[in-house]
Amino acid sequence: MPAAWPATEAAALAEQDRLRGAVVTSGRLPHVRLAAGLDVAYAKDSDQLAAAVVVLDAVTLAPVEQQAVTGVTRFPYIPGLLAFRELPALADALGQLRAVPDVLVCDGYGIAHPRRFGLASHLGVLTGVPSIGVAKTPFVGQHDEPAAQRGAWADLTDGGQVVGRVLRTQRNVKPVFVSAGHAIGLDDACELVLRLSPRYRLPETTRAADHLARATLCRPAGLP
To answer: Which residues of 149-180 are buried (b: 16+ CB within 10 A; e: fewer)?
Structure first.
């Protein structure tokens, strides 16, 4: 992880340009044993945040380890540069893990991003761990509506390029928006998202990380 994070919009854009060429949007993950979900929660009335990482057994979906940190936002909200608000705290939480995840499942975007370098791609490049973006809403692109059954999907395209898939994880439930982050192809990414979403719309990794981030943010100061 970098010793210092960009503090201005211009520096952040330059950093995205510098790292974007390292993204790999192919690769197989045939033996995922541990999957980590990552999420960040923000306080409504202050600049406080909580970043959470939860590692699950990718077969049983049982929790293996979880880590969370609190901090403050040090970068303004700028569309397309969310990673620079969230990555410092997420990096701290990841650094506390004893378990080594095989894949990172981010609540956000991989290459489905205006500059093809969203949070999942940024995190994957920095850590070297294969990464996937799973978002609740699209950030860029156009798509058709997938069929109603679980597993149905439609291409998410932007500027004539396929940047992700609109994936139905549960029958007659709103789809999610899956994009490759780094070191994994879209087919494997979608297959894994379905494996991690046996009952609900969102992967269990995302649900667990969201719960931990919110609980950590609401925890009174001084409590473990």
So the answer is: eeeebbbbbbeeebbbbbbbbbeeeebbbbbb
Residue pLDDT, tens place only, 55-69: 999 999 999 999 999
3-state secondary structure of 154: strand
Handedness of CA 210, 211, 216, 218 (dihedral sign): positive
Helices (H), 63-130: 83-95, 119-127
Q: Is residue 4 part of a domain?
A: no
Q: Are strands 63-72 and 48-57 parallel, antiparallel or unpaired?
A: antiparallel
Question: What is the DSSP track for 181-224?
Answer: EES--HHHHHHHHHHT-SSSSS-HHHHHHHHHHHHHHHSPTT--
Write the single-letter amino acid at 24: V
DSSP alpha helices (H): ranges in 21-61?
none
Q: Report yes or no on 178 lying in a domain.
A: yes
Domain range spanning residue 87?
9-218
> How far, in Å, CA of 195 to CA of 204, rounded?
9
Domain CATH number, residue 102: 3.30.2170.10
- Phi, psi (5° rounding) for residue 190? -70, -40
Over residues 60-102, the pLDDT tens digits come to 999 999 999 999 999 999 999 999 999 999 999 999 999 999 9
Looking at the domain assignment, is residue 165 inside a domain?
Answer: yes
Number of domains within the chain = 1
For residue 119, is it within any domain?
yes
